[in-house]
Amino acid sequence: MRDNTQIERLEAESVNSAEARQPLYASRRKIFPKRASGSFRRFKWLVMAITLGTYYLTPWLRWDRGPFALDQAVLVDLANRRVYFFFIEIWPQEFYYVAGLLVMAGIGLFLVTSTVGRAWCGYTCPQTVWVDLLLVVERAIEGDRNARMKLDSGPWTVRKLGLRVSKHATWLVIAAATGGAWIFYFADAPTLVGEVFSGTAAPVAYITIAVLTATTYTFGGLMREQVCTYMCPWPRIQAAMLDETSLTVTYNDWRGEPRSRHAKKVLAAGQPVGDCVDCNACVAVCPMGIDIRDGQQLECITCALCIDACDGVMDKLGRERGLISYATLSDYNANVMLATAGGSCPVTPSLVRTVNGKFSDKVAHFHIGKIFRPRTYVYMAVWSLIGLGLLYSLLTRDRLEINVLHDRNPQFVTLSEGSIRNGYTVKLLNMIPEPRTIIVTIQGLPGAQMSVAGVDLPANRSFAIPVEPDRLKMLKVFVRQPAEQIKGQAQTFKFRVEDKASFESDEYTATFNAPEIAR
Amino acid sequence: MSGEHIDEVSGISTTGHEWDDIRELNNPLPRWWVTTFYITIVWAIGYTIAYPAWPMLSSATKGVLGYSSRNHVKNELVAAEAAKAKYVAAVESKSVSEIADDDALREFAVAAGGAAFRVNCVQCHGSGAQGSKGFPNLNDDDWLWGGSAEQIQQTITHGIRFASDPDTRLSEMPAFGDIITADQIKQVSAYVASLSGLVQDASLIEPGAKVFAENCVACHGDTAKGNRELGAPDLTDAIWLYGPGETAIAAQVRAPKHGVMPAWIGRLGETKVKELAVYVHSLGGGE
């Protein structure tokens, strides 16, 4: 007989035990966000107006650059490889400015998230803005939450069909306008708009419109919150950005609990009751379809519409606003400790309020000084340093440049009278939209003279050459030095370019090669 | 089928297939996935009808769109030819010096000539046209037969000492080993070397000059500057096709080597030859 009692039974359970196993695929449950009203909603309308206005109107702004460049203020000219932004013109080799701006955007996102949480997600992310816009259309056509739910569950009637068709048609028009606005950043907008409608624009313009129409309609109209929850990496990264002094949308259960729909009855029964009347207004307005009372969660984009909804209810009940509010985790934790007497009892309203119903002095409230802390100072410092660096670089950058390529094959040529000649491909970059006369000079290399292939110039140490506006001029320059003045197999000298009118100049240090024994 | 069967463990309905009491769960693929899959099948069938696809005995089906990758390339080549037709026509109708004077045309001819050079000329003249012993460097300003664009065109067209072209550039230096003595060869070599300042034995120069005057001036000239009509090299400059110095000069006097360059007109045609001439002329030594 075996004695089973000697075998210790371990408290272990498989992580995917058959009883507790959840399916990997979950069907989407439709969300019908109710219209919210309040200060955050008004702020979001304002942000929407500014962001959409900026997006649609920017390509139409004009900026005079003289007769040799387009007058569009913001233009990405891919065909000519130029980017224009008001007074700034960028050549492809200066693309690091864009890289610098992207780094600043990244650091800026860290800064914003560490102070006011996912404000980017909640207010300015294109996904949020366009979903908001398409929801406006949906509400205008199908009605608010209850009407939409009824329509959705109802049978297919002519009316339902008509509403659905008009909704999707309007969405598609908005989506097409979104894609349509995008292409104007890449060509002269007034010209392109005519071409687009007359069917003479480049195929890539129509393809871009089609792709962006499809993505706007699909992401903004059909997929909505699923994009944020399943496709976007930012909700995953946010945990690293938030800390206990970051503002997040918080349900203050220390004053809301115990929640009750029948406060009077419960009070009459002598039991404690919190501020939350369990009206679900916060859930109904949520575009992500979540319940903020379950705590901070991945799906929450902190759009703050639940704050508006709850504040409205609190106003009606004559309670203080802020049952749901922007709060830091440290304040929230302190208040929870206060309300539960250090965790020794359930949330008890009487612990946070004085006898006359006001909040006790011990309740922690947010003040603006809390967001200034070493972490935010570091983000701000890095952000500003990069910004200042870019600005400095922008203000001191060259608009006249020279690049030189030394011929490699042959490296040098012996001429009939014994002198040595080297060939160079010289590129003169006139980076302003005005024609200029550039003076090219050689410095060093005693006795050496230049001649230019295909340009009729007397051999000299200096020559002037016109360069077209905003263009690169490539010259084949031959430099020859008399044999008796050659010192060594590799001598360095300088090509110098100068614009006498603007006093701009640039230099390039080149090498002059000679055979081992120059006679 | 006896109604829907639900699997007890997972709570999922089964397909009704059963083998040895093992049932298959009914977990259908998402609708959008299946739809996309069917669309790709329909697309694939349409594709094989539209484009060449199905292998037959000797070839494959042609496809109703009539596409072929050979035609595609042919069309691209035709388009490329059409794109440069304007320049090619101009090269055909103009002289090489006119081409060299026109910025856009010169740029085209230099690019086209450079391409032809890399195919036809680099074997002897080197990839940088730098030449080597016996093969002239085309970058320098020393020309046996003349360095103007027209003269270069003439040289490329008919070649040098190319027997099958009656208009070829022709010259031959006698082998002086059979005509003058070894001492005289030594003397004249020292004299020639001295003309361009190369080291030499001073006692040999004067008799060398005499030998030169008696034998060499007919082609190389009184001042040894050479004669381009005859392809006779300038002996006073710093460039030596067969190497500098008395020994190399003496070897060339005794039994001269003569390079041969083919006539290219038959193989490349006039337009290509013009482009090549403009390219060579542009290398830095053109006159």
UniProtKB/TrEMBL annotation, chain A:
Keywords: 4Fe-4S, Electron transport, Iron, Iron-sulfur, Membrane, Metal-binding, Transmembrane, Transmembrane helix, Transport. SUPFAM superfamilies: 4Fe-4S ferredoxins. The chain crosses the membrane at residues 43-61, 95-112, 169-187, 199-219, 377-395. The lineage of its organism: Bacteria, Pseudomonadati, Pseudomonadota, Alphaproteobacteria, Hyphomicrobiales. One of its GO terms (molecular function) is metal ion binding. Residues 265-295 form the 4Fe-4S ferredoxin-type domain. InterPro entries: 4Fe4S_Fe-S-bd, 4Fe4S_Fe_S_CS, Cyt_c_oxidase_cbb3_FixG, Electron_Trans/Redox, FixG_C, Helical_ferredxn, Ig-like_fold. This is Cytochrome c oxidase accessory protein FixG. Coiled coil: none annotated. It comes from the Bacteria. GO terms for cellular component: plasma membrane. The keyword Iron applies.
UniProtKB/TrEMBL annotation, chain B:
Pathway: Energy metabolism; oxidative phosphorylation. Gene3D superfamilies: 6.10.280.130, Cytochrome c-like domain. Its cofactor is heme c. It holds the Pfam family Cytochrome_CBB3. C-type cytochrome. Part of the cbb3-type cytochrome c oxidase complex. FixP subunit is required for transferring electrons from donor cytochrome c via its heme groups to FixO subunit. From there, electrons are shuttled to the catalytic binuclear center of FixN subunit where oxygen reduction takes place. The complex also functions as a proton pump. Component of the cbb3-type cytochrome c oxidase at least composed of FixN, FixO, FixQ and FixP. Belongs to the CcoP / FixP family. This is Cbb3-type cytochrome c oxidase subunit.
